[in-house]
Every structure is written in structure tokens, then in C-alpha cells.
Amino acid sequence: MTAPSPDPSPPPTAATAVRLDLPGGKAVTHRDVAANGARFHVAELGDGPLVLLLHGFPQFWWTWRHQMVALAEAGYRAVAMDLRGVGGSDRTPRGYDPANLALDITGVVRSLGEPDAALVGHDLGGYLAWTAAVMRPKLVRRLVVSSMPHPRRWRSAMLSDFGQTRASSHIWGFQRPFVPERQLVADDGALVGQLIRDWSGPRLQEDLTDEDIAVYRRAMCIPSTAHCSIEPYRWMMRSMARPDGLQFNRRMKRPVRVPTLHLHGSLDPVMRTRSAAGSGQYVEAPYRWRLFDGLGHFPHEEDPVAFSTELVNWLKDPEPDR
Q: Structure pTM?
């Protein structure tokens, strides 16, 4: 008679998978704030003007661990939030369109007791940062976007550039029901690690440890996270011909009127450089484009020193149009 197999390990919880310290054991302040009808987890370090950091897919606040230290040391209040449905934030049944997600972000700024913030967004977080700067410009002091074009530029590239459509094949795959969620959590989130490695440049592929990958895999396996994390991409594609999507696209015609720093990796296989370049046409304010040679889709993790230096120097520059 064979012995019964052990019970499978329980799924991770936000408390264990998300509320982490920074590398080296440096402690951050974890707390929950209410905004736009939901609860959001934030990690905070430092004092000074607020810099709100917005993660992309398939990550959560921890992706900004290096920049939080650099910003705090430079005299800023660095706050990294988990977007709706991810990490330690609420997983609501709806509300994943970019206009509502942008209101989450500006609501968090107000809940933190600040008059405005410099928004720093990567990937989906960058898409939402562009949106927030258009919808609530008085709450956005400066804008920094990495690895994501302006939403109107993104839409145009997805519809007219076969190379970008092919590079974004994962987004098309997200349109299937049920299957993408199951793929993301299969084998304890193995696909998350594969995507991060595939989308990275050679530097991160060499330096990223199995434990780094395991952090992201555990966070994706928190119940309902996989579904919520891809819902924004379903809206972005399915709404293109619907009235709500057309209305959003018209709304984004309004120019960005805050100083903007646009960062991109030259080897990004997900968002082509030609798709991101040209976003400055939607900015009626100082705009600076910076291409990181040899980096992929995650420049803030692939070369955190170069990224953080560029970020801090630009935030401190009183004349960012130079």
C-alpha cells in the first residue's frame, strides 16, 4: 500500500509574498491606503517631495527596489504602489480600464496627503502614468515613462505596425478566456520567470537570480492575481472599436503639459523603439528621450545604477528641457 501524497502547499498570501524588505535587509514602511473605492498597498521609503512608482506586467511594487533606495538617498519620498488587482492591493471584479486605473493612481496621491507627485511608470504603469498626466494634470508634477509609448502611439503601432503586433503577441494571447490565467500560475508561476528572462537584455539574463524570479512567481500565484493582471490588456485590445475605447482615444488627444522623461531600452523585444519614439508629439512641455543601449524591457532592473542616476538627475534639474 502506497503512502498518501502530501497535501499541496497552500497558495501564497499578500502578507508573505508582497510585504518584503529591500535587498540588504533595508526596511520599508508597508501600509494600505484607500482611493477610488478600493484599497491599495504601498511601500514607502524616505522623506521629501513625493515620487510615486508604478510597476508593469508581470511584476509588482518590488520591481522598484533599487530606485526606492536611490530616491530616498536623494531626498525624495519614494512610494511604490501595487496596481489594482496585483500584489497587496484589492482584487475588484471590475474597474480595469485605463481611465479608472489612472484615477486609482491620482487617488493614492491624495490619500498620501500630497498636493502632487512625480509619476514614474514602467510598461502598463507607464501607460497609466501617461493617462493620469492627461486626466489630472494638477496632481502630476513631473512624468517619467519607461518601456511604453503614449497610449495613442501604442494604439497606432498595434493597428498598423506588423512588427509591433508580433512583438506584442502575448497581449493577443491574453484575449482568450481562462487559458492565460491558467498558464500564468501553472508550475508555481514558471511562465512569469520565462517572460522576464525572455524580455530582458543580456545583462539581466546573466544577473537575475532564481530567488529574484521566485519573488515574482510567488506574487503572481496569489489567488485572482493572474486574472486581474491581464484584465487591463483585455480592455486595451477589445475596446479599440467600442465606444468606450474610442472615447478614451479621443480623450488622450489632450496634450501632456508636464515635463516628461521618456526612457527606453534599445533591445526591448516587447515594445519596439520605433513604437515608443515619437511620443513627444503629445507633450506640450519639456520632453527628454533617453535610449539605453544594450538594455531590454526592464531597464530599471537591468542597469539600476544608470536608470536611477538618469531619473534622479532629471528630477533635480530645474530646467529639464535642456
A: 0.95
